[in-house]
Amino acid sequence: MYDVIVIGSGPGGYVAAIRCAQLGMKTAIVEKYPTLGGTCLNVGCIPSKALLDSSEHYHNAEHTFKTHGINLSNLKVDLKQMITRKNDVVKQNTDGIDYLMKKNKIDVHQGVGSFVDKTTVKVTKEDGSSSDIQGKNIIIATGSKPSSLPFIQLDKDRVITSTEALNLKEIPKHLVVIGGGVIGLELGSVYARLGAKVSVIEFMDSLIPTMDKTMGKELQKSLKKIGFEFFLKHKVTSVEKKGKEVTVKADNAKGETVEIKGDYVLVSIGRRPYTDGLNAEAAGVKLTDRGQIKVNDHLQTNVPNIYAIGDVVKGAMLAHKAEEEGVFVAEALVGQKPHINYNLIPGVVYTWPEVAAVGYTEEQLKEKGIKYKAGKFPFMASGRARASMDTDGLVKVLADAETDEILGVHMIGPRTADMIAEAVVAMEYRASAEDIARMSHAHPTYTEAFKEACLAATDNRALHI
Amino acid sequence: MSKVIKVPAVGESITEVTIGQWFKKDGDTVQMDEVLCELESDKATFELPAEAAGVLRIKAEEGDTIEIGAVICEIEEAGSGVAAAPSGESSSKPAEKETSAKTTGEIKDMVVPTVGESITEVTLANWIKADGDFVKLDEIIAEVDSDKATFELPAEATGILRHVAQEGDTLEIGGMICKIEVMDGEPVAEASSAAASSAPASSSAPSKDSYATGHASPAAAKILSEKGIDSSEVKGTGKDGRITKEDAQAAQKAAPATAKAESKPAQESAPAPVAGSRNERREKMSSLRKTVSRRLVAVKNETAMLTTFNEVNMKPIMDLRSKFKEQFKEKHGVGLGFMSFFTKAVCVALQEWPAVNAKIDGNEIVYNDFCDISIAVSAPKGLVVPVIRNAEALSFDGVEKEVVRLATKARDNKLSIEEMTGGTFTITNGGVFGSMMSTPIINAPQSAILGMHNIVQRPMAVNGEVKILPMMYVALSYDHRIIDGRESVSFLVRVKELLEDPTRLLFGV
Prior knowledge:
Chain A is α/β, with parallel strands linked by helices.
């Protein structure tokens, strides 16, 4: 009898398992796939970053090296090698999880985990053999899968999801991306940098529509420069494949039908919670009508000894959100009282420029009727950004009009994915914009832009603009 | 300018208090009405609120016993430039600075008012306002002691105070206390001079409360939540009063949580005993303890106390309780405990045996037609005995609600002296600590006390058969000077009867 069984070994699941083991619980983890790490490590965050970095190098070699004073001849993309290197990165990471499981004495059960009753999980291997394991507590961390539209036939060859997009055999000539969210723009960037024409069709009126509107606008400008074309406020009505050609039809805002032809179509309209084969009913665990596992504020399902975390429950589908929840449940199981501040979970887009944000957007503050002041600082005015020729983008700080408390930070620019951590720390401590403005930031760094934006928010006294 | 805070008069017979605990440190910025420290008198513990906002300067330390009217601390009021003055000098005299307010030339003489029929003279306990202070109409300027009570003296006009009598002076009614040079408006010199003098000192000026004051860091928030402490109970030492991890680790539950630094000295003086150690420790008795000890000995010496015992079969009450527990709770929002049964039974018996409910006053016996039942409650600082008033008129749920209310206040040290004085009979329950049998001491000036004990399964002979029944011994200690054996024993038997057949309570039979 285990103290805890974790179903799913993504960032939520494996972190939950490690924290449980650290707290002295006898822990098992069940994983359907042959490697640990879930979507994030195998077909998500890590491989996409590997390809983004490779393609960024190529892009720079092609476009900026000359200005830097480096001349190359015979510059070529070796896509096969790029994919191989990406696979190596994935393997190193998943092997790392194997090591962490051993180190923490966590039993790994390979196979599909499904509930028999509220304390028993059946693990079915690929060869059909199965065994039952029992746990006092069970954490569901089965994550999510790419979702699609009912009329789209995903053939996984030309009409593909993010999973296939990480393993293409050739660089598309024209990649049509359905959905202008994080995944579509990141993978679109990979192939745009490698020379593909990329057309993005988005239903909403801006890119990355859940983020602050300024971010979408700025990102659109930057991506246009590398060969993106955008069809905003377009509703996709059909996707048809004929041989090597795929035709996407969409209605524009005026109700006219637009036809876009490409050789590959990436469907990236979002992800759905994944509970296939989990047999949650056997344990009596209830799902929401959106297919999520229903949990209370303590991430507990309606069955008291069963918890659920990550993409399979409500909230943003982010690896770091799942990790926090994994730690939360593990600690709650031993009677501790952890807390997650969901408003301060940062969101990041690994395009170039990178986009990162935490806290409220300007739109949310307006809606809530909170009086705020905004301070902006463009990377154009940053010495560090000029030196690296990464002058696209800006930092926007939103602070309370009266108290000067930072309420939201939105960044688009070089390395903002790393820079956002400072904003999270500041906001967890409820720092004011002036607090940041009065802290020394090393020069020359990209983070000075955050300080300057804070100065601008304090009372419009940025120094370098 | 600074505000001198003195020990307020807390009750008629209380002459001195002990400082239990400072919640604020010397030099802390305090808000108006924020609790500064806890004072213990021999009757109760009470909290001392700040009478002004500003920087606290402590004048008396924890454990000090000080007289009513003595200075506890001063508050250097915020916004006055003096607050930041390094010398700490605080008794400025703003009236002597430039002021825009005009002296009208009128001088108001203030004399000792008539305070009571038999009072002919009073003592000026202390000046709350210093000589030369600007005072507003009705602002309290001094405290005056009579032999019956302490009262506060309000200013009879707005203007500059000029002392005539000194602290400690005995004054006749009608005697001159002070004069007020009547003024129109208020002096504004303070503000302007403050602006001038505070500028260079601003870096050392204590930070004011901000929106982030009391915000717990993520790690601190988790610790506090696990300790069950609200962040508002913790004083943050971080930037702008933020609560750091260390603050949270040092925070303590129950007795209002304060920072580690403040509780440390006490811990150091009382290290955990080491095995084999022959160390002994001396601690000063608290006022409360001193009073308790004095009164208990007095009761032993001055009364003719003895105890009668009986035993009660608790089965009928327990059956009734289990039968109606849920409904009672649902209807009244309070649990049905044993206290309501005992209190009601005692009230019936008291009314039948009035001597048990009486007290001696000189050469007279005072009979009470009401039953004010004192209940002994264990509080953090020791035993306290709040009173359920007119318990004879209360319903069961009325008694239970009152018990819960008083016990909660006792636990939080929030009982007022009012709530602890004037009972006519006491019930004490040593059973909660496991006592099988004991002889309680009368709660003077009352004449009797009922002791409840633990409930134990005992073999009893019932109609010639052995039955196992939940039994409780009850003890009645009483003052034989006014209660005869017949009365005390009959009283206790009556209580037993009522408890063993609670339906009797319905009919009063």
